[in-house]
DNA sequence: AGTATCTATCGTAATATTGCAATAAATAAT
DNA sequence: ATTATTTATTGCAATATTACGATAGATACT
C-alpha cells in the first residue's frame, strides 16, 4: 500500500504525471522562474532569493535535475544551474498535446 | 517541519504548483483522458477502466473536483463527471504562460 | 598546511499521499 | 419494505515528500 501503481497506466500517463510532480512545488516553480530570468543561478543565490535552508534548496535542485529539467555545471566551489532546453520543450509539448485533446474534442463548437 | 512553506512564494507560484500537483498522478491523468474521450464518465466505469479500487478512484475524483478541474452531477445513484471548461482553460493558460517565459527569454535566438 | 566558501548528502521529524477494506448514505428496482 | 446498485467517507497501513541541522567533500585563498 501507499505506492503508486504505475503498471496500471500507459507510459505517457506516467510521464505526464511524473513531470507534473517535478513542478508541483512552489519552490521548484520559483527556482525555474529564477533560472529563466537570470539565465542561470547558483544554489547560494536561491537560498537568499527564496527563504528556505540550503539543504532544502539543494534537494529541490536535485529533483529538478533528476526530472531532467535542469542541468548543473561545476564552477569552482559553485554549481551553475540552467534549464535543459530539450527536456523543457519536451515537457511543454507533452502538456500542450494533453491540453489539446480537450480542445479538439470539446472545444467551443461542441 | 514537513509542511510546504507557501508563505515564501507568490500566489502565482503556489497556484501553478497546486494545479500541477492535481495532475501529478497517472490515475488522475487517466481519469481526465477518459473524461475527455467519453465526454463524461461515472466512478464505476473508471473502476473497470483503471484497475484501482472503487474507494481509490473516488478519492482521486475528489482531488480533481477540489482542484476545480472536474464537476459532477448526480444522476440517480450514479454521479456523472465532466471537465470544468473554465478551470481547464485556466490551467492551460497558466501553464502556457509559464512555458512562454522561457521561450521569450531563451529561445533559439538567445 | 590551514582556513574559508559552497554544495551535496545523511539522518531525522513532521506531514502528505496512496491504496484499500469496511461501512455509510442515497436512490432504483422488486 | 426489502434488496440491489452506486458513490462517498472512515480508518488504517505503507510509502513519499518536505524541511532542516549537522556533516562531509571539494575547490579557492592565504
From TrEMBL, chains A, B:
List the InterPro entries hit by this protein, alphabetically: ArsR-like_HTH, HTH_ArsR_DNA-bd_dom, HTH_MetalResp_TranReg, WH-like_DNA-bd_sf, WH_DNA-bd_sf
Keyword annotations from UniProtKB, A to Z = DNA-binding, Transcription, Transcription regulation
**Regions annotated as coiled coil:** none
Determine if Transmembrane is one of this entry's keywords. no
CDD domains attached here?
A: HTH_ARSR
Which residues are in the HTH arsR-type domain? Answer: 8-106
Residues that span the membrane, as ranges: none
Pfam families cross-referenced by the UniProt entry: HTH_5
**Claim: DNA-binding is one of the keywords in the record:** yes
PANTHER family under this entry? REGULATORY PROTEIN ARSR, TRANSCRIPTIONAL REGULATOR, ARSR FAMILY
Task: Identify this protein by name.
Answer: Metalloregulator ArsR/SmtB family transcription factor
